[in-house]
């Protein structure tokens, strides 16, 4: 198998050292790697000290029945107490927990003691509605402070929440409610999106028609939209929560008590309910938030620009930042409402010091142009991060230069819904960053790249990304389906966790995550990464965005088919551009990677979380009827692609 074609990305020679002042004051220093290697469980015992335990744990890890882990055995704690009460008790109740910025421009500043009071009221309301420890509660809300209040009220009672992203349809919501047998749904009339109210309640009404276990729907008033009402079942949040006492004593639960279920898509149609538990998850998220973002709770203003409906929001808007007593920004709306500089205005307004977002957002900003962020003062930023997909070197360098003023470290963080916490990332005060590389497993995490037989590959080679030791925030199972948990993650390679991603170790042993293995192509027996070809295409000045798929081909097994969006400034997009781009890919990577076809399109099909749905592009590339488009953010995109494209062979 020729690996040489993968090596293009690895010819990246730019290096960005940590700024000296950040390095000198960094939370985690280089010696952490050796300390964790020497005594991994001792290291995790030490990290658990950032959490307040009502009953101390007796063992760090029970791995006697792999892959079913028990972390911090015997320990008891309350997650909401750790996120709120203890900060108030320590005298930090007046510290801001969230600067909330609504899309229409309304704002709220919420301190730790205010948040604690609201969470206690919500917990008392849920008790009044009959919620008991262990009951499941579904949350279907926009990005508003009450979403955090609802989650922490559940955590306070030991009632696992399942937050369903507000962009999901009624049927997706129904499936999730049914799968985890939730009895209460917390929703809102609607949220603000792209300059107008976007209703949520109708989807809940439709979903719960087929969910007989749901006895109450709590409705937060956000937009003031008209809502249909089912007496007896539906209750206004303000009516039920507002009257409650702000006193509630949190009960401590076992470290392995379920904290939440988050659904994510797998290779089959049925979403997987990823189960996270309390102690390990809180240790894992607070440790990584503290080390990867170098959090200084007294001075930082931290912003994860993601939706709470995804794991990134759970771990790095809610649990990690609050456990660390951080001040965060929460923004309700879309980046370009009412104008394309909205994010940068928010950074300037709150003097954000840390920004964490997805490469797809960065590439969209690149497309719009550097003159937009240039209008705002972004000098408060000292660290910027990326998550969710491989960041191509061009986007990395643009992000660092244009948003980070050429001075901030960029932390490219690899992790998954399943891992619960960041697993592979540079350490901002230690690592010399390479654009496009997530670099190294964090201290305490053991990652490797293995071949088909599960053998560790040498430096300079590619293979499958695996995690060789359990970690505190790992998923404990798939809700209600232990067998699928074992099959999906622990069966491909014996005794190790298979992440589903392809990766490469460069000559220095640093890790480059190449994307899902289902996105890795095999062309004439050569292994090619979609990411690498996309990266090559995006490095061409005329290309704004690119998506590449491997289409089946009778001669070569698979063939490279690229979909590109041209920059507005680029000329028409006819045959010449296509020829130019094919030559460009050849020149950057090698003739083997030259796309068989390049289709110029005006949009790419993306999920609501911004991931490109290559499956649909593969349908187009293979001239099939386009498959299920229900998870697309905009389901008209596929029509536009099939009608408007300009194929060229
Ligand atoms: C991909 C999001 C490359 C990867 C937190 C993983 C990444 C999947 C990176 C998980 C990164 C995430 N570089 N790829 N820094 N971060 N991925 O569950 O394919 O929504 O398996 O979790 O995103 O996506 P999920």
UniProtKB/TrEMBL annotation:
InterPro entries: Ac_CoA_lig, ACAS_N, AMP-bd_C, AMP-bd_C_sf, AMP-binding_CS, AMP-dep_synth/lig_dom, ANL_N_sf. It catalyses: acetate + ATP + CoA = acetyl-CoA + AMP + diphosphate. Keywords: Acetylation, ATP-binding, Ligase, Magnesium, Metal-binding, Nucleotide-binding. Its EC number is 6.2.1.1. Residues 31-83 form the Acetyl-coenzyme A synthetase N-terminal domain. Mg(2+) binds at residues 538, 540, 543. CoA binds at residues 193-196, 312, 524. The modification N6-acetyllysine is found at residue 611. It holds the Pfam family ACAS_N. Acetylated. Deacetylation by the SIR2-homolog deacetylase activates the enzyme. Residues 90-471 form the AMP-dependent synthetase/ligase domain. Its cofactor is Mg(2+). The keyword Magnesium applies. GO terms for molecular function: acetate-CoA ligase activity. ATP binds at residues 388-390, 412-417, 501, 516, 527. HAMAP family: Ac_CoA_synth. Catalyzes the conversion of acetate into acetyl-CoA (AcCoA), an essential intermediate at the junction of anabolic and catabolic pathways. AcsA undergoes a two-step reaction. In the first half reaction, AcsA combines acetate with ATP to form acetyl-adenylate (AcAMP) intermediate. In the second half reaction, it can then transfer the acetyl group from AcAMP to the sulfhydryl group of CoA, forming the product AcCoA. Belongs to the ATP-dependent AMP-binding enzyme family. This is Acetyl-coenzyme A synthetase. The lineage of its organism: Bacteria, Bacillati, Actinomycetota, Actinomycetes, Micrococcales. The gene is acs.
